[in-house]
Amino acid sequence: MKKLLAVTACPTGIAHTYMAAESLQKAAGEKNVPIKVETRGAIGIENELSAAEIAEAHAIIIAADTDVDEARFAGKPIVRVAVAQGIKIPGQLIDQALALQASTASAAPQGGSSIGSSERSENSFYKNLMNGVSHMLPLVVAGGLLIALSFFKLNPEEGTFFANLLQIGGAAMGLMVPILAAFIAFSIGGKPALAAGLVGGMLSKDLGAGFLGGILAGFLAGYIVRYLIKYIKLPKSMEGLKPLLIVPLLSVFIIGMLMIYVIGTPIKDLMDALTVWLQNIGSGNKILLGAILGGMMAIDMGGPFNKTAYTFAVGLLASGVYGPMAAVMAAGMTPPLGIWLATVLAPKKFTLEEREAGKAASILGLSFITEGAIPFGAADPLRIIPAFMIGSGLTGALSMVFDATLRAPHGGIFVLAVPNAIGQPMMYLLAIVVGTVVTALLVNLFKRNKPAIGVGTK
Amino acid sequence: MNIHELLTEETIFLPLETGTKETIIAQMTEGLKLSGSVTDAEQYVRDVLIREATGSTGIGFGVAIPHGKSSGVAKPGLALARLSEPTDWDSLDGTPVSIVFLIAVPQENVGNEHLKILVALSRKLIHDEFRESLLNASTKQELIDILKNM
C-alpha cells in the first residue's frame, strides 16, 4: 500500500492550511490511500512528519504558500502546489502523487533516468545513516569526555571517584553502537524496527564488530522489519498481534541469528588470521609493522581490525617490547585530532553540529579515545576512513622509526605525566602532530563540500 | 472555551442583503464591532481586503471565509452571514457564495483556544453535511447549536 504525506501552510494559518489538510484527508479517505498531513498554521506545527515516515512515504504533497522546510524531503518525489489547490483539487493531487512514484520507478530500469533514481537511493542511504549518527553523537561526546576526565588518575582504585567516572563514561560508550544501529533501523522501518536495531547493535558490540557492524545491523534490521510488515498477512482478527508480537519477535530473532552466525563467526576468524599475520611480520620490518598497526587502528575504530592491533600491542608489553604499543596509541589519537583540526581549517565544510563535535573530538583524541572520530567516519565512511587510515598509518610508522616506546596501554597525552612511561617523548609528539595534520588535510580534500543530507543542520 | 465567545447574536446575519464583496465584509464588520471583537473597523476591513487581494477566500462549494489578522482587532471573533442570494466571490471553483464566515484575529497572538475553534471550523467546512446544515438552519440559535457541536 502506497503511503502519502502532505504538508499544508498559509500565511495567516487559520483557514487555508486546515481546509487543505482536511480536503486532502477526505479525498485520500475516499480513495483508500493512507495519508498523514502536517499542518503549519497559527497554532504551530501539528502532526509533524517524522524522518521514518518520510523515508517510508511514496511521495509528498506540499500545498503551501509559505516555507515548509523542504530540505527534509530531499530525494523524495514531491507534488508542489499553492495551498488553494489543496482545497480545490485534492483528489487530483493524490492521483498525481501516486503516479509520480510509479513513473519514476518504472523509468529506472529503462536506463534513461537511472541517474536520478540512484541519486535518490544514495540520498536516502545517507539520510538513514545520519539519523543513526546524530543520535549516537551525544553518547560519544559525553562518554568520551567523562573517560578523558577519569584519566586525571590513571588506573584508579575501584569505587573511587575517578573509577566511577570511567565506569559512567564506559556505559555511555557502550550504548554508542546499539543506538547507532537502532536509529538507522528506526529511520528505515519506524518504531517497529527499533527493537531489532538495538539488539543488532548490541550484538555487534559484543561480537567485536564495532560501529561498521552496527551500521550493517541497523540497515539489516530496518529492512527486515519493513519486509516483515509488508509480507506477513494475517486475518483481520489477529492483525493486532502483528506489531506487538510477531514483528518484534521475528525481527529480533532474525537479526540476532544473522549477527551471530553470518557476521560474528567470520569476525572471529578474521581476528585470528590478523593476529597470526602480525606475528609473522613481527619486528623484522619496524616501519611496515607500525604503518599496518596504525592503519588497523583507524579502519574500524573499535571493530575487529582495531581490536586485533591493540590486543597485539598490549600482548607485547608483557614480553618487554614497547614500540608497537606506542605506535598503536599514537595512531589511535590522530583520527579524532585530525577531525578537530579539519573542522578548524575548513569550518565551511562542516555543519554547526559537526564543528561542535570537532571540539569534543580534540579532547577525546588527546585521551586516546579513537571513538571520538566515529560519528565523522560513520557519516561518510568511504571518504573519511581512508583519510584516517593514511594519517594513522603514517603516525604509526613514524613512531616506530623514532623508536618511541610506551609502557602503559592507555591514557593518551596524559601518560606524559607518568615518569618514564614514554621513551622519546618529543619525537613521539612529532609523530602524532604529523599524522594529525595529514589526516586533517586529507579529510578536507576528500570530503564533499556540504553534507548530502543535513540531519544535523537544522 | 465556548463558541459564544466568538460568535454572538450581533455577528450572525440571517439573511444578509447581498452586495459586493466589500459591502458584505463592511456590514459583517459592524457586527464584530458591536460584539467587541473589532475596535478599528476601517483598519480591519483594509486588512481583510488586502488578504483578499492576495487570493480569493472563496474556498468553493458556496462558502467564503474572508479573514484578517489585524491591529484593529481586540479579541478573536467570528461573524456568519447567509446571503440573500448567491454572490460572486471569485471562488476557487467559480461557484457563487451563499455562506460567508468573517474571521477576526488580533495582530498579537492570543490564547490558542480561540484559534483552535477557528481551525476546527475551517476543517469542518470541507464536509458537505456540515455545510448543508448551515444552509438549512432557520434560526440564529440553530446555527449556534450547529457550531457548538462542531
How would you portray this structure in words?
- The complex is a heterodimer of chains A (about 450) and B (about 150).
- Chain A is an alpha/beta fold and about 450 residues long.
- Chain A has 16 helices and 7 strands.
- Chain B has a single domain (about 5-145), classed as Mannitol-specific EII, Chain A (3-Layer(aba) Sandwich), CATH 3.40.930.10.
- In chain B, about 40% of the residues lie in helices and about 25% in strands.
- Chain B is built from 5 helices and 6 strands; from the N terminus they run E-H-H-E-E-E-E-E-H-H-H.
- Chain B has helices at about 20-35, 40-55, 110-125, 130-135, 140-150; strands at about 10-15, 60, 65, 65-70, 75-85, 95-105.
- In chain B, strands 1, 2, 3, 4, 5 and 6 form a 6-stranded mixed sheet that branches.
- Chain B is globular, with a radius of gyration of 14 Å.
- The mean pLDDT of chain B is about 85.
- Classes of the chains: A alpha/beta (about 450), B alpha/beta (about 150).
- The interface of A and B includes residues 11, 17, 42 and 82 of A.
- Chain A: It is a multi-pass membrane protein.
- Chain A: InterPro entries: Bacterial_PTS_Sugar_Transport (IPR050864), PTS_EIIB-like_sf (IPR036095), PTS_EIIB_2 (IPR013011), PTS_EIIB_2/3 (IPR003501), PTS_EIIC (IPR003352), PTS_EIIC_2 (IPR013014), PTS_IIB_fruc (IPR003353), PTS_IIC_fruc (IPR006327).
Strand content of chain B: 15-25%
Shape of chain B: globular
Helices of chain B, by number, come to 5
Most extensive interface: pair and counts? A-B, 20 and 25 residues
Q: Give average pLDDT of chain A, whole number.
A: 86
In the CATH scheme, what's the topology name of chain B?
Mannitol-specific EII, Chain A
Instruction: Tell me which oligomeric state these chains represent.
Output: heterodimer
CATH superfamily of chain B: Mannitol-specific EII, Chain A
The run of helices and strands of chain A is EHEEHEEHHHHHHHHHHHHHEEH
Summarize the structure.
Chain B: It is found in: Cytoplasm. The complex is a heterodimer of chains A (458) and B (150). With 458 residues, chain A is α/β, with parallel strands linked by helices.
